[in-house]
């Protein structure tokens, strides 16, 4: 989906149509905490991007406003509404495709590979054309039912399809056949390949590899020497042949929540109250998850200087009750209130709680 959260807001509130729109936490005139969840394309023209600190987004919006450009509107996240819309869109996919993988609330993969009967239809059957027709029908049904734009990429595997959908945004439609995949990827920045982060990019740049074509000159053995087992996977990704399976159901490995405070604090009463509330929220989600018990409880602490620490413990026996989550989370947290874990008496920026090892 294109700028999904912002697009839903524009659809449901016509007064926002055509205006730069940023969905995320409250910017508080540049003093806000948190990040941008989604920015529409008019806001992106100001340099505002998802996951950017909301304070930085506000400064960019102010710079644009002082140049005489339309001011950006900042809105709070309404996740319940976005999830409701997402479910309806996923239902459209499932009505038209046998196998669907929900990658996130606004992104999915679906398999339009030919059936055994279609595979035997003869040399003149154009399966990519058939897939394109099916995908266009999905795209148009989403537009008709939800009044939202989706970008579609069709490829021989998930990697190529994902990159094709991104390259076509907004409201895009791109088909990359198997024989075109390597040529399609070749001129793109190497960072385009999923899994390539800043460190991998830096390592490749040292070796003169800026584009996918540059990196594809390395042998599989050379990439393995650089990056270990991931190097072999990377070798296939660079050629557009990496064929990860479509996963229709994802089993949760952990359930967690965290809270970034509006102001850094060292107040133990406030911190213990917020930790308890977070633990209660995690337990409520666990009770709805379908799992019968958990074994591990972990907390995350982020200080005012952005130093982040995690501490966890595994129970002697599986547990299900909220009291255990509260008690163990507090027990893990208490050393951060004194010199054992916080000798410099730093203030706290964020707390988080997570449960895992389900049965």
Describe this structure in words.
The chain is an alpha+beta fold and 359 residues long. It folds into four domains: 4-77, MutS, DNA mismatch repair protein, domain I; 80-180, 2-Layer Sandwich (Alpha-Beta Plaits); 186-238, DNA polymerase, domain 1 (Orthogonal Bundle); 254-356, DNA polymerase, Y-family, little finger domain (Dna Ligase, domain 1, 2-Layer Sandwich), CATH 3.30.1490.100. It contains 14 helices and eleven strands. It has helices at residues 4-12, 41-44, 54-66, 79-96, 116-119, 127-146, 158-168, 181-185, 198-206, 212-215, 220-227, 229-238, 268-289, 322-333, and strands at residues 21-24, 36-39, 73-75, 99-104, 107-111, 152-154, 173-175, 254-265, 294-303, 308-319, 348-356. The strands form four sheets. It has a four-stranded antiparallel sheet with strand order 8-11-9-10, with helices on one face. The protein has a three-stranded mixed sheet with strand order 2-1-3. Helix 4 (79-96) packs antiparallel against helix 6 (127-146), helix 11 (220-227) packs across helix 12 (229-238) and helix 13 (268-289) packs antiparallel against helix 14.
């Amino acid at each position: 989906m294109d700028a999904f959260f912002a697009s839903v807001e524009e659809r449901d509130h016509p007064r926002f149509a055509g205006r730069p729109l940023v969905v995320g936490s409250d910017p508080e005139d540049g003093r806000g905490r948190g990040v941008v969840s989604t920015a529409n394309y008019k806001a992106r023209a100001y340099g505002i991007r998802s996951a950017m600190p909301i304070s930085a987004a506000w400064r960019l919006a102010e710079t644009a406003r002082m140049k005489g450009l339309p001011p950006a509107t900042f809105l709070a996240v309404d996740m319940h509404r976005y999830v409701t819309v997402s479910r309806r869109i996923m239902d459209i996919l499932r009505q038209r495709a046998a196998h669907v993988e929900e990658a996130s609330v606004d992104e999915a993969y679906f398999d339009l590979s030919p059936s055994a009967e279609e595979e035997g239809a003869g040399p003149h059957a154009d399966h990519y054309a058939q897939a394109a027709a099916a995908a266009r029908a999905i795209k148009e049904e989403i537009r008709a039912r939800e009044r939202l734009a989706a970008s579609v990429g069709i490829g021989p595997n998930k990697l190529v399809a994902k990159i094709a959908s991104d390259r076509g945004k907004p409201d895009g439609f791109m088909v990359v056949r198997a024989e075109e995949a390597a040529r399609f990827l070749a001129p793109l920045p190497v960072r385009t390949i999923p899994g390539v982060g800043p460190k991998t990019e830096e390592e490749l740049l040292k070796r003169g590899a800026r584009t996918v074509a540059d990196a594809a000159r390395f042998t599989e053995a050379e990439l393995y020497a650089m990056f270990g087992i991931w190097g072999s996977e990377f070798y296939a990704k660079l050629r557009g042949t990496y064929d990860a399976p479509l996963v229709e159901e994802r089993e949760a490995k952990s359930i967690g929540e965290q809270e970034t405070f509006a102001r850094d604090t060292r107040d133990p009463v406030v911190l213990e109250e917020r930790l308890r509330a977070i633990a209660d929220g995690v337990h409520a989600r666990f009770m709805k998850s379908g799992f019968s018990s958990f074994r591990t409880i972990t907390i995350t602490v982020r200080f005012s200087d952005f130093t982040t620490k995690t501490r966890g413990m595994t129970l002697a026996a599986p547990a299900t009750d909220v009291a255990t989550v509260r008690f163990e989370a507090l027990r893990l947290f208490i050393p951060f209130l004194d010199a054992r874990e916080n000798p410099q008496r730093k203030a706290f920026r964020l707390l988080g709680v997570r449960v895992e090892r389900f049965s």
